[in-house]
């Protein structure tokens, strides 16, 4: 398989920002919102527009609400924050679970919520994502102010990277304590997810999915480790906080089409009700996408503007990608 440089970058980041695709547009007039902070919400089954308050009302009795995002998109993060508040007003018993914190930093998150550290200390202690202040601060601060538990839901970053390099057997090198933090079946899969993964990274349509290279297999297992860990953490949050509604924020690849984390959670806890809210990009000319085409992505859809391209100069893009590869290559897996 020949993989492009851009595809390799996506692999290195394990698909955290995947999902940008070209969409056909309908003849409907442009939606009224016109900034990157705006999002228009729709019921996917009826294509009915909803306010955030109406959405929260419909979700009041749902056990787990999963909001997929394109990491760093202002429209996604503002919607998440507004929905958190609206859901809390309907049902104050809430837990926030986040892909953006790794479970080995749960104590650091808890220490901040208790007032034991300042924000910069927490960011340093948890190795928080670079866009924490711009994107996730509102969620965490609302949780802190209202004594809402915040669950670090993702697998430890170093473990994910090393599984991506060395494969499933790397978990056997972990201490018993570290291994016990991870799911009992860390590489469980959901039907159709593998094919979606291969398509997302540009796998040739002429090759069988069974012909994944060893490197690609390891990358996929690392992706599954993330999904299984998040599903486990959501399930445990429900068990530790009975009657609470869980709001989970994650990259849309982990949740749309009810695959990844969502599919695994539903297999682990079939009695738990789950609603999926997925982003869809509007066309650059502002027209509304065909909802029927994207309805399977989630129970609800929110429309947002596409972000501007990172690069137009291919050489500068390659240089930036190499620099990002080099930064992630420091992890020792021996």
UniProtKB/TrEMBL annotation:
Residues 312-334 are annotated as: Disordered. Gene3D superfamilies: 3.40.50.11550. Keywords: Lipoprotein. CDD domains: ChanN-like. It comes from Marinobacter suaedae. Residues 55-262 form the Haem-binding uptake Tiki superfamily ChaN domain. It comes from the Bacteria. This is ChaN family lipoprotein. InterPro entries: Cofac_haem-bd_dom (IPR007314), Fe3_uptake_reg_CjrA_prd (IPR016773).
């Amino acid at each position: 398989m020949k993989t492009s440089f851009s595809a390799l970058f996506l692999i290195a980041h394990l698909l955290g920002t995947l999902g940008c695709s070209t969409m056909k547009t309908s003849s409907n007039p442009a939606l009224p919102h016109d900034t990157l902070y705006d999002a228009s919400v729709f019921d996917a089954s009826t294509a009915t527009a909803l306010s955030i308050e109406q959405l929260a009302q419909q979700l009041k009795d749902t056990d787990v609400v999963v909001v997929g995002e394109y990491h760093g998109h202002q429209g996604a993060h503002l919607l998440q924050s507004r929905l958190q508040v609206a859901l809390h007003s309907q049902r104050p018993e809430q837990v926030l679970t986040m892909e953006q914190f790794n479970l080995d930093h749960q104590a650091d998150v808890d220490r901040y919520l208790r007032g034991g550290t300042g924000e910069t200390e927490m960011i340093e202690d948890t190795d928080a994502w670079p866009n924490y202040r711009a994107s996730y601060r509102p969620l965490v601060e609302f949780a802190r102010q209202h004594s809402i538990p915040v669950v670090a839901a993702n697998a430890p970053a170093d473990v994910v990277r090393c599984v991506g390099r060395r494969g499933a057997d790397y978990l056997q090198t972990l201490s018993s304590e570290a291994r016990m933090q991870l799911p009992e079946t860390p590489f469980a899969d959901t039907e159709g997810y593998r094919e979606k993964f291969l398509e997302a990274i540009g796998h040739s349509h002429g090759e069988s999915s069974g012909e994944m290279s060893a490197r690609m297999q390891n990358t996929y297992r690392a992706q599954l480790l993330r999904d299984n860990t998040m599903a486990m953490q959501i399930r445990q949050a429900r068990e530790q906080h009975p009657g609470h509604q869980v709001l989970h924020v994650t990259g849309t690849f982990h949740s749309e089409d009810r695959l990844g984390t969502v599919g695994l959670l539903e297999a682990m806890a079939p009695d738990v009700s789950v609603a999926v809210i997925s982003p869809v990009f509007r066309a650059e000319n502002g027209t509304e996408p065909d909802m029927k085409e994207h309805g399977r992505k989630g129970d609800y859809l929110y429309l947002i503007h596409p972000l501007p391209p990172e690069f137009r100069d291919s050489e500068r893009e390659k240089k930036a990608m190499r620099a990002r590869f080099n930064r992630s290559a420091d992890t020792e897996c021996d």
